[in-house]
Amino acid sequence: MRKINFNWLLLMLSIFILTACSESKTSKLLKQVPVSSEYVSLVNAKTLIESAGGSMTDSKSILPPAITDMMPSSSKSDLEDINKILSDVGIDSEACVIFGNYESDSPIIVVSLSDEDKFIKMITEEGYKAESKADDVAFYTKVTEYGYKTIAITKSFAYCALKPAKQSAVSKLKNIITDAANDSYASTEFGKYISKGNAGGIALKIPPQTQQQLIAAGAAPSMVTLYKGVVCIYGNLTEDAMEINTKLLNEDGSEKDLAAFKDMFDVNAKINKKALAYMGSNDLLIMAVSLKNVDWDKYMETVLQGNALSRSDKATLTIAKSHFEKLDGTVAIGLGITNGLESIFNMDIGNDFMNQFSMTLVAETKEGKAKGLVNELKAFLEKGNIPYTSTESGLSVELPDKAGTFYVENTDDLLVFANHKITNKNDNATVDGIDFSNYLSACGLVINKDNKLLKDLNIQNDIKASITGDANNIDGSFKMEIKGGEAKGFLAKLIGIVTNISNQEKALDRKLREHRKKVYGY
Length: 522
Hints:
Elements: H1 6-15, H2 23-30, E1 39-43, H3 45-51, E2 55-56, E3 61-62, H4 65-68, H5 73-86, E4 91-100, E5 108-113, H6 116-125, E6 129-134, E7 137-144, E8 147-154, E9 157-161, H7 170-182, H8 189-194, E10 200-205, H9 208-216, H10 221-224, E11 230-237, E12 241-249, H11 273-276, E13 285-291, H12 296-303, H13 311-324, E14 327-337, H14 340-348, E15 357-365, H15 369-383, E16 389-390, E17 394-398, E18 405-411, E19 414-418, H16 429-433, E20 441-447, H17 452-456, E21 462-470, E22 475-483, H18 490-503, H19 505-520
Antiparallel strand pairs: 1-4, 1-10, 2-3, 4-5, 5-9, 6-7, 7-8, 8-9, 10-11, 11-12, 12-22, 13-14, 13-20, 14-15, 15-19, 16-17, 17-18, 18-19, 20-21, 21-22
């Protein structure tokens, strides 16, 4: 069997060869990480590999064909070598963490050892030599053309710097082990948060340089204070779904407090369901936010504190403020394709452009303001000699060259703009499938397999995705669900969709050329 790079082996183990970490093992692992670490990453490759359609046992990992088909032959050989020695390296593949500090020359990987003797035998065969032993910690070093590689072994755990150093890292690893024993990452709110996911987690302290760069770029000082703390992320995978949750905590682990902004807008406001009822049936992607009780004077004062905006930008923003002040509640936009690939082809060549997509914009206003805005729009059109047709509660405008009709309506203090007839009785899959009313801001997409675009792409799945946020605690969530199809596991389904579209690239290009010829004759 040919030799493989040991550090590469450890990194591959952390990414591809780990089995599921139980809560107790995760906790034990984080106890080996100093509380002063600026980034910490947990990886659960068993969940990832099985979700992608592969499999894993204690001694072997089998990646799905969708992944191995894209791997170079050298990587496949390395994977075979790893599988051959997995059962004899003494590493407990259920535990792994990577951590470090930004100014450090190398991240540190820690693995749990199931058999310390086997592990020592393996690293000595790789050329590592015993250097010293102190306080139940044994150090092994290997000198290469790129520098020193150092491993510390203590209490059934192995620490290894992933990058070679100019000198032995014995003192560095010794300090890490001592610091972790005194105060570990497992006791922090960051460690507890990133341990929640079955697919892994990561915590990143925002570097101080970020604030300095924002100030230098002209950002408002009160806004800059938001960019201080620790970003924490964890992920969960089930057979049909993926969920990634994120939270920004203060550096002491407490909840991020937005007290300085609570008098500027209502951080507990939620998206109004009534506003979303006007989304067209073809609107697949919907983005919405609640601007309830915004103090636009304070907002403008905050924004204008910085020097990032030019004088003309500030003047424009000041003029726009008079319109912003009329808003009070949900602002949402919906976008979609009306006729599958044919619409995409027509947009590509600029043919009947406005009728190829659906667009709806809804703005909730203060009482009586929606009607006033419609009247202002009518006055603007009349001033520009642009013909329009008045309706009971709005107007419609025929676009030039029969490009389509644009509609404007006001009802129940809602101002609605759309390139389709406006009604609140639409059958919209995204509005029905995602409860926007639970959030201050949200973006959602629901597209079922009977949609013409998915039929044209030969995708046999129902797809739902959402990004939601809570300004009160500065946390957010990305969720994606893929149902149907023959693949087992969320990542396997996602890979299958991407691969399917990729395999159709030539066919889609041919269809586009045929469409151009049909329309233009060449």
